[in-house]
């Protein structure tokens, strides 16, 4: 017979030198009724992974470049990236193979996790971890933050550890600055006192482990999954606390940013300050990478189905993708604005020197969206760019054109292998593939 739990139930244990300690629990079913290249020491500069994700798709006929291989030219919608052609590759003709059950949502889950959504009534969630978290679990475990998620739009983001376990993005540039460069950050050479309570705080989980084992044996499968996710998050926090006790990594380009972002970026005439917020956060993230605070980041600049009022637009973005007639000049202008933000992010990464290369050279950045053509919610001819070379492992300045609607998950396998991850494949069921894109591997 299962134990009855109160929603304020705690795990309790004894910690030497600190007495009794407790850890709160996540919301469980059991709480409810019957009706979740080289550094100075010779070590290779670490590869990084980045994601730039925007909502509502593109116009494929104005997105796909002319020409293939190394001989291609920018399309209309890629024009804001002029001058950066040697820093990224375009991948066109690919298809997200997972079922297109929910407009925008299915494409979002398919391209980021290679799996279909779990759909339960009006609630849906990712079935599998998103690509950023798969990579973070491999290359992000030794840094202060396993991954950092942010975005100019105040929405939930698309970074998932698994079902019902989302990593919400930071939407305030000031809060992002405080999180990375506030209390707890030390630049190389800076003195700093370590709070003596840190060693006690990061031992809490060990102290309640015995109670944890008992609890997991008394709840259902869904609750065990939620508990595993909850304890994983606590363990990651303890690891971050432990890293605060260590000397900061020595990186030549690392410095505390000079400018602190504004506390607030209010809408102006009903229009959000997306550009200002995004650029402030990109500046912070570039230095967070340079200081090795993290090696994985996700920039969710806008969400699927967003109805944000962009500069020059007469209606919300999503509404325009369906209602604007003809060639949809306002939607086209919005895509151009988003690509200007991609260009800023890449230029910011490229401006940071690392050894004989740049921070961008040591990154692999995936740039994509949730649908191909917003009006039809199509998942073929899917828009994908990859920027940087992941330390010389990815081909740049190239247009790879699939002639037979290859599985878009091949891009993720390519990216993971370039980052040194021995991936057997990516995706689930229809979205799975063991294959990479050899033409983009170096």
Describe this structure in words.
The chain is 29% helix and 16% strand. It is α/β, with parallel strands linked by helices and 442 residues long. The radius of gyration is 22 Å and the shape is globular. The model is unreliable at 14-18, 21-28, 31-37 and 196-202 (pLDDT under 50).
Question: Any descriptors?
Answer:
442 residues; alpha/beta; Alkaline Phosphatase, subunit A; globular
Strand-residue fraction? Answer: 15-25%
Question: Radius of gyration, Cα only, in angstroms?
Answer: 22 Å
H/E series, N to C? EEEHEEEHEEHEEEHHHHHHEHHEEEEEH
Largest sheet: 7 strands, mixed
Average pLDDT, to the nearest integer? 86
Q: Which of globular, elongated, flat, extended, rod-shaped describes the shape?
A: globular
Number of strands: 17
CATH architecture of the largest domain: 3-Layer(aba) Sandwich
Per CATH, what is the topology of the largest domain?
Alkaline Phosphatase, subunit A
* Residue share in helix: 25-40%
- Overall number of structural domains: 2
Secondary-structure-derived class: alpha/beta
- Lateral arrangement of strands in the main beta sheet: 9-12-3-15-16-6-17
Q: How far do the termini sit from each other?
A: 58 Å
**What is the count of DSSP helices, taking H or I runs of 4+ residues?**
12
CATH C-level class of the largest domain is Alpha Beta
Catalogue the unreliable spans: 14-18, 21-28, 31-37, 196-202
């Amino acid at each position: 017979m299962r134990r009855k739990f109160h929603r304020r139930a705690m795990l309790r244990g004894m910690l030497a030198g600190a007495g009794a300690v407790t850890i709160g629990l996540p919301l469980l079913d059991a709480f409810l009724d019957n009706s979740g290249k080289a550094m100075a020491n010779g070590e290779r500069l670490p590869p990084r992974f980045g994601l730039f994700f925007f909502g509502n798709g593109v116009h494929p006929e104005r997105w796909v470049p002319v020409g293939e291989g190394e001989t291609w030219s920018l399309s209309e919608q890629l024009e804001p990236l002029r001058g950066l052609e040697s820093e990224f590759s375009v991948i066109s003709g690919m298809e997200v193979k997972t079922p297109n059950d929910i407009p925008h949502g299915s494409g979002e889950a398919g391209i980021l996790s290679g799996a279909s959504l779990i759909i339960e009534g009006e609630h849906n969630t990712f079935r599998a971890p998103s690509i950023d978290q798969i990579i973070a679990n491999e290359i992000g475990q030794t840094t202060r933050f396993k991954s950092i998620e942010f975005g100019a739009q105040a929405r939930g983001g698309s970074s998932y550890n698994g079902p019902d376990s989302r990593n919400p993005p930071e939407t305030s540039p000031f809060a992002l600055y405080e999180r990375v460069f506030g209390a707890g950050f030390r630049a190389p050479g800076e003195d700093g006192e370590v709070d003596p309570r840190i060693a006690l705080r990061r031992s809490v989980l060990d102290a309640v482990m015995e109670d944890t084992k008992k609890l997991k044996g008394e709840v259902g499968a869904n609750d065990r999954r939620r508990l595993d996710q909850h304890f994983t998050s606590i363990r990651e926090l303890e690891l971050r606390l432990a890293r605060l006790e260590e000397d900061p990594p020595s990186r030549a380009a690392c410095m505390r940013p000079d400018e602190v972002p504004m506390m607030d970026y209010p809408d102006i005439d009903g229009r959000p300050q997306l550009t200002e917020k995004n650029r402030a956060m990109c500046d912070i993230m570039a230095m967070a990478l340079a200081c090795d605070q993290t090696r994985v980041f996700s920039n969710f600049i806008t969400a699927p189905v967003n109805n944000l009022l962009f500069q020059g637009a007469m209606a919300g973005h999503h509404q325009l993708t369906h209602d604007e007639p003809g060639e949809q000049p306002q939607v086209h202008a919005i895509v151009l604005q988003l690509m200007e933000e991609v260009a800023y992010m890449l230029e910011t990464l490229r401006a940071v020197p690392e050894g004989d290369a740049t921070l961008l050279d040591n990154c692999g950045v995936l740039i994509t969206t949730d649908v191909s053509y917003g009006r039809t919610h199509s998942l073929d001819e899917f828009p994908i760019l990859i920027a940087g070379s992941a330390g010389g492992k990815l081909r740049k300045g190239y247009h790879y054109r699939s002639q037979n609607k290859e599985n878009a998950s091949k891009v993720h396998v390519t990216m993971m292998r370039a980052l040194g991850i021995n991936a057997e494949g990516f995706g689930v069921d229809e979205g799975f593939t063991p294959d990479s894109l050899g033409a983009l591997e170096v």
